[in-house]
Amino acid sequence: MAPILYHQDLSPPCRAVRIVAAALNIPLELKVINLLNREHLSPEFVEINPQHTLPCLDDNGFIIWDSHVIIAYLIDVYVKGDTSLYPKDVKIRAMIHQRNHFDTGVLFAKLRQLFIPVHTQNEKELNPTVVKEIEEAYKIIEAFLSKHNYLCGNSLTVADISCATTIQMVNVAVPIPEECVKTLNWLDRVTNFPPYIQENADGQIKLVNRLKSLLGDKIHDLSPPCRAVRIIAAALNIPLELKVVNLLEKEHLSPEFVKINPQKTVPCLDDNGFILWDSHVIIAYLINKYIENDTPLYPKDLKIRSKIDQRNHFDSGVLFAKLRELFIPVWFKGSKELNPSTLEDIAKSYEFIEAFLENNDYLCGNHITIADISCATSVNYSKVVVPIPKELTKTTAWIERVNSFPPFAEVDRPGQLALEAAVKSIMAPILYHQDVSPPSRAVRIVAAALNIPLELVSINLLTKEHLSPEFIKINPQHTLPCLDDNGYILWDSHVIIAYLINKYVENDTPLYPKDLKMRSRIDQRNHFDTGVLFAKLRELFVPILYKGSKQLNPVTMEDIAKSYEFIEAFLENNQYLCGNHITIADISCVTTVEMLQLVVPIPKELIKTVAWLERVKNYPPFAEVDKPGQMALEAALKSILK
User: CATH number of 221-240+286-424: 1.20.58.100, 1.20.1050.10, 3.10.180.10, 3.40.50.300?
Assistant: First the structure.
């Protein structure tokens, strides 16, 4: 029975294990764990690997993680003879181990420092200090290779494979300097090892594409007109060489680009020195020049062409004109406010589309044309903030049809998703918070669970930043968390959570269902948190944190112990406070109870409460957001109470 390897293609260490297994014909049963969807934080996987890292190996119940350890184990157990990839010679093995620790402690450690802010915090800038440290690491590799073709001699070993998978990822953002000739040649040799090509190529391509997307190298995908051109080119097999012009970095305003296009817009086409801009003009030109036969996307029939041209001008003069009017202040002038008059105009423009579709499936008849593609890329953008009204059934059906056109789906979807994320990120409400604050973490946990973006601003309670005139002007009660949603100010975590769900979550959610009876029960438990649990927390800890006391009030500690008995009663017939599904009440109450039990442990006889606490703590968004703040809180209290 083959060992099970929990892995993901994007992960260099996972690919290293698979490369070695392929090279030595060691069968593996592969199980994908999606890191980006946080599957590694699921209770099921954390039970297998408490460190919740990939790769992880299950060999008939024997569990190990760390790619270097897994590789050594697989060779020791499943390879009978000696192998040059990991020889039994003690000295060579020692050297391989040393290089593997260099991978773990230097290369991969720096990789994590470089890319975790990019992957998880929407950071677009690479840390310059880490970049310099990576460049220094390349010099160390150059030294390792001073007398050899590989890291441990003149034969490829598992150390080369592990280090190369890491360096391939790092090299995407921090290229190996040209003067590191030996390192460049070594990487070329390792990446051409046949099992390496077989197991590494797909994952590396996916990884490069994701990193380029996150770091802005595919910023042209954010532009609907650019995507329209690319969709048509893909549909008609017209090859294009793509060159990125990053609008957010104002590359379109550079002297070099203005010389090409004085109007400084994208897309812009250079066909052997013949320059064109405006997506509609570019599309028509490409079809006229490069498509010999007639195409239903832009037929040669003059009446149909004129109708298509009219719809294209509707896109230019109405749909896209209103997009520019709405979003230029947001993208380039720092505004978080959307002009209400423009929002109304966009809603009215959908009514025109409904009229165009009165007797047709598409804007110019019953076949998709370039007008549908151009208008749909604009509408996909506008509906991020102005949804198509449900009563406009023809428009709703039309946008779905166009989005399902295969070249459209292939080219448009990645850019549209990036655009939606970018708009949501820019327009995200500001949350004033602190990690050590349980209510602050409750808001962030719910936001993470429901993919509600927040711009986080840290306010240090211990240094009394919440008492500054600037913050009191925002929140006269000077409490955390506090939300600023485009000038609309709210505080109290329970109120903020309910507001975010009501405003930003379209569908029903079991975390805070629309059912009135369920909501009233959740609200009641939230008031129990506010009036009992958190009230006692404040009573216990305010003297310690802010008044220099070293003594915990024994009466308050008794009250806290009694409050646990209420929770046990709430859980008499349920797994959670309001039933058998986790809700926002569980999240709020657990963040409070976590802090309380640092000094007033839950009695063992309250079995349901103990089990409930563990269940909620293992809820993936809770585990991800809560742990750093809870650890910092524990350390702070230990320091104060020692």
Answer: 1.20.1050.10
Element (H, E) at 275: strand 274-277
Q: Give every CB contact of residue 344 below 8 A, 6+ residues apart in sequence.
A: none
- Say which of 11, 349, 437, 493 is annotated catalytic: 11
55: cis peptide before it, omega within 30°? yes
pTM of the model: 0.50
CA dist 616 and 589 (Å) reads 10
Token pair belonging to 473: 């002007």
CATH C-level class of 430-641:
mainly alpha
CA 166 to chain CA centroid, Å, is 21
Tell me the two tokens of residue 479. 């409490």
Condensed to tens digits (0 to 9), the pLDDT of residues 148-180 reads: 999 999 899 999 999 999 998 888 778 888 788
Contacts of 458 (CB under 8 A, 6+ apart): 432, 433, 434, 435
Beta-bridge mates of residue 271: 274
User: Same CATH topology for 4-211 and 430-641?
Assistant: yes
The C-alpha atoms of residue 156 and residue 164 are separated, in whole angstroms, by 11
What are the pLDDT digits (tens) for 402-418? 999 988 887 887 777 76
> Phi/psi of residue 241, each to 5°?
-90, 120
Catalytic-residue membership of 468: no
Phi–psi pair at 45, nearest 5 degrees: -80, -35
CATH class held by domain 4-211: mainly alpha
Question: 104 in the Ramachandran plot: left (φ > 0), alpha (ψ -120 to 50) or beta?
Answer: alpha
All structural domains of the chain with their residue ranges? 4-211, 221-240+286-424, 430-641
Mean pLDDT of 567-587: 93
Question: 403: which 2 tokens?
Answer: 């989005």
